[in-house]
Amino acid sequence: MEAASKQRELTGDKAQRIVDAMRASVATRGIAGATFEHVSREAGVSRGLLHYYFGTKERLLVEVVRRDSEIRIARLDEPLARSASADDVLQVLVSSLQDMLDNEPGYFDLLFELFIAGRRNPGIQREVGELFKRSRDHVVEILGAKQREGVISPRFDLEDVVAYLFSIADGIALQVLSDPDKDFDPAFEAATAGARFLLTSE
Hints:
This protein is mainly alpha-helical. It has helices at about 1-10, 15-35, 35-45, 45-55, 55-80, 85-105, 105-120, 120-150, 160-180, 185-200.
């Protein structure tokens, strides 16, 4: 009963304020400087409440990334549903990644920080793995509809193709954020050509 009540609270306005405060704190102070003290003050809740909800800063980061991932993946639904060709599908995916890199690079900071935390903490690793799986599954579902429509014809199992696409996106993001002065347009072109090969059998 307590667990169910706690979960209901996590979907409420108070939990959203906490998540928003953590995201803002990371953007202002960085991961290391974003403490429960800062977050509790900015969210207007006690530190004890943060510990009750999340236990650790890493678990709060998981919740921030989970919610952000769900929003970003959901943004793909409508444009992908309108896609009438494999090139349309690729344009949606590439544009989404470029928009995130240009306007919301902090998402990747959180994601990579959680990956590092997961290497030290099996519980965090499982949560991050499940987060990735939910995102992949959602994209597989969307692209599966495109496959049934005949818009794409993957050369390999769609789950494996989507896992590859996620890997390429995360890898490019890491390089772009590490070397912002380099022109990565040719890398995007190469990645798009590789993805087109995997999504089409012609």
